[in-house]
Amino acid sequence: MTSPVVGVLALQGDVREHLVALATADAVARPVRRPEELAEVDGIVLPGGESTTISKLAVLFGLMEPLRARVREGMPVYGTCAGMILLADKILDPRSGQETVGGIDMIVRRNAFGRQNESFEAAVDVRGVEGDPVEGVFIRAPWVESVGASAEVLAEYDGHIVAVRQENALATALATSFHPELTGDHRMHALFVDMVRAKLVAGSL
User: Fold this and answer.
1) pLDDT at 77 over 80
2) Less crowded by CB within 10 Å, the N or C end of the chain?
3) Marked catalytic residue, from 17, 36, 37, 81
4) pLDDT of 83 strictly over 70
5) What does the alpha-carbon distance between residue 141 and residue 147 come to, in Å, rounded to a whole number?
C-alpha cells in the first residue's frame, strides 16, 4: 500500500526531528498546526516540549477538541515525553489550566525523572522492537505510575514504566517517556508507522 500520511503536532517542541524520523520510517510526514491539516493525516505524533504550553496552544489553535475526537475515533497517535503526558487519561500533578488529549488508560507523573540538568541517556529494551535496546534520551521526562487493563507496558527503566501501547476499540496509541527522535535510531517511529498502516488496512477491509 502507499505510505501513510503521518502528522506532527507543530505547536512547540522538536517537530523537525520527528518529521525526519517518520520520513525515514516510510511515512509521508507533515506538520500539523490547524484543524484542516489534522483532518488530512492518518496518524499523528505529539512531540516533546512543555506539556502545559502545548495543551494551551492546542486550545488556542482550535486543535484540542478535533484531536480528542480523532483519537476517540481510533486515529493512531504517538506521544513522546510531553506527548506522553498529553495522552494520559490522568496526570498526577497537573499544572493549572493543563488539559490532556487522553487516549491511553494510564496515570502519568510529570518531570518524574528530574529537572533539565538531570537529563540522561539510557538503553531501553522495548517489547516489539527487534535487535539491540533502544537508546532513550530522557529530558525532564515523565514516567507512568500505573496502567489500566486497556494499556500494555512495553518498557521499564529503573523500575518505572517508560513505554506504553494501547490498541483496542478505545484507542490506537503509543507513548514513550524518552525522545527517540533525538537519536539516529528510528525503530520506535517505524513501530508507530506500522500501527498506522495496520489501522488503514483494517479500515479498508
Assistant:
1) yes
2) C
3) 81
4) yes
5) 17
As beta bridge partners, residue 121 has 137
The residue-averaged pLDDT of 22-36 equals: 97
Dihedral sign, Cα of residue 103, residue 18, residue 67, residue 177? positive
Q: Give the separation between CA 201 and CA 205, rounded to whole angstroms.
A: 7
Residue of 17, 18, 179, 186 with catalytic role: 179
pLDDT score recorded for residue 1: 63
For the segment 80-100, the average pLDDT, to the nearest whole number, is 88
If you search the block for the grid coordinates 478505545, which residue do you land on?
A: 170
- The average pLDDT across 189-204 equals 92
- How far apart are the two ends of the chain, measured CA to CA in Å? 13
Cβ atoms of 185 and 199 within 8 Å: the answer is: no
Strand partners of residue 124: 134
Residue of 17, 18, 181, 189 with catalytic role: 181
State the Rg of the chain over Cα. 15
The C-alpha cell of 187 is what? 525503530
Say what the pTM is. 0.95
Q: Is 160 a catalytic residue?
A: no
**Alpha helices (H) in 25-157, listed in sequence order:** 35-38, 51-60, 64-72, 82-87
* pLDDT over 80 (residue 67): yes
Residue 40: Cβ within 10 Å count: 10
108-134: average pLDDT: 93
Contact (CB, 8 A) for 92 and 109: yes
Active site residue 181: yes
